[in-house]
Amino acid sequence: MGGVRASRPMSGAGRGDAIAARGRGGMAAFRALGLAPWLAEQARQMGLLRPTPVQAACIPAVLQGRDCLGCAQTGSGKTAAFVLPVLQRLSEDPYGIFCLVLTPTRELAYQIAEQFRVLGKPLGLKDCVVVGGLDMVAQALELARRPHVVIATPGRLADHLRSSSTFSLAKVQFLVLDEADRLLEQGSADFSADLELILGAVPARRQTLLFSATLTATLGQLRALAANSPFFWEATAPVKTVEELEQRYLLVPEALKDAYLVHLVQSFQDQHEDWAIIIFTKTCKDCQVLNMMLRKFSFPSVALHSMMKQKQRFAALAKFKSSIFKILIATDVAARGLDIPAVQVVINHNTPGLPRIYIHRVGRTARAGRQGLAITLVTQYDIHLVHAIEEEIKLQLQEFPVQEQEVLQILTHVNVTRRECEIELEGTDFDEKKEINKRKQLILEGKDPERAARGRAELAGIRRRNRECREKARQSLERRRQLRLSRKRQRGVERRRRRMERQQEEQQ
């Protein structure tokens, strides 16, 4: 049997030549899609060596002027699939406002803006990010300068359209909806009223591009609504999560969930100190408490949830992305679209109630061909949710092995620490902030509780005054009736007195 000849290690120069060759091949592949040489070079410098399937399918269609609906897994390069062709069209006829991108979260808006800036640097691209939590006056001034690209959340952009006349969307060439399923579906963040206003402000003759990781009934209906020779592309992979993602579950009693979480984090920190971990929670309060608890155990964690101020959210993401903190505890505000490439582990502290939420959560790891691990903590009440997830992703989750004895050893300490954190949080104005945020949302939706209370109070006052008026009228009528009766009796008495006097006179 012939032996296998050992290959000689490639020299540094050889490796450089190989990388350069791959880069040239990638440029040729992007140019074959119809992109200009300068744009293909920008893609290469950004590390996009070869078009992904969604890019290869959608970029030519967009350049042909067609509306596009792209549905592909998270981490598949959907953002570049619309940024690249938009920049090419902009370079041919640069003006502002040329493109409007709508996205459901603030963090995703800034991430998309970053890709526009990097890829559009040779154009001297001007962009404007319009999201909540920041000064509206400063945003209005930026919009008035007519940037080439506006990246916005629907709520804040709708606020500007209602209150300002310093800018116009009448010449928008591209309308892009990223994470389109979340923008178009009814739910906790209902964008329908804001979208209706925005769609009324953009021209009917435009290109509409919609991208999402999940295909919903709402998105499916849009295929019939698209006007410009609509192009639809959906990833053909039967599994809706990438092959590089290892998906596990851990069956735990509800009362032991936090102890299992601490054990998992400790194990990963001991074995892989440089690994980045995202822990997803159900509520803002859970997120805050878990972060406080892990910090008490000396874990390098930071929280990200919707009750944090925008500057705090930016700071938290920056610390996590720069590896200052290795653990990010987040609500689903971070589950959609955020591209944090070097995340090795995702832990679901709660089992997501909807399979698509699970898909978006675990999609934060195993991105761009990297390996990743997702572990979901499943209680006795969540079995049916796991079955729904498995049916959706066409994959059976495998159990993750742990040393239960080690978990039991830390159980009491973890539970006591959690309770201490809950008491500490109760001593702050966290719940008060929650009520304030809730009231702000109601006000934006035209459901100001104080205004409603004032309206109810005014209505009650009107009803009370009406009752008082009716009572006064009744009393007045009653007094008049009594007065008439009294006068009638007096007249009767007077008549009887005169009659008696006449009778006496006649008898005399």
TrEMBL record:
Domain of life: Eukaryota
Name listed for the protein in its UniProt record: Probable ATP-dependent RNA helicase DDX49
Record-annotated Helicase C-terminal domain positions: 244-408
GO annotations of cellular component type: cytosol; nucleolus; nucleoplasm
EC class (word): hydrolase
Compartments where found: Nucleus, Nucleolus
Keywords: ATP-binding, Helicase, Hydrolase, Nucleotide-binding, Nucleus, RNA-binding
SUPFAM superfamilies in the record: P-loop containing nucleoside triphosphate hydrolases
GO biological process: positive regulation of cell growth; regulation of rRNA stability
Enzyme Commission code(s) on record: 3.6.4.13
Keyword Nucleus: yes
SMART domains registered for this protein in UniProt: DEXDc (SM00487), HELICc (SM00490)
Domain DEAD-box RNA helicase Q: residue ranges: 28-56
Biased composition (Basic and acidic residues): 470-480
Principal place of residence: nucleus
Stretches for region Disordered: 470-508
Position of sequence motif Q motif: 28-56
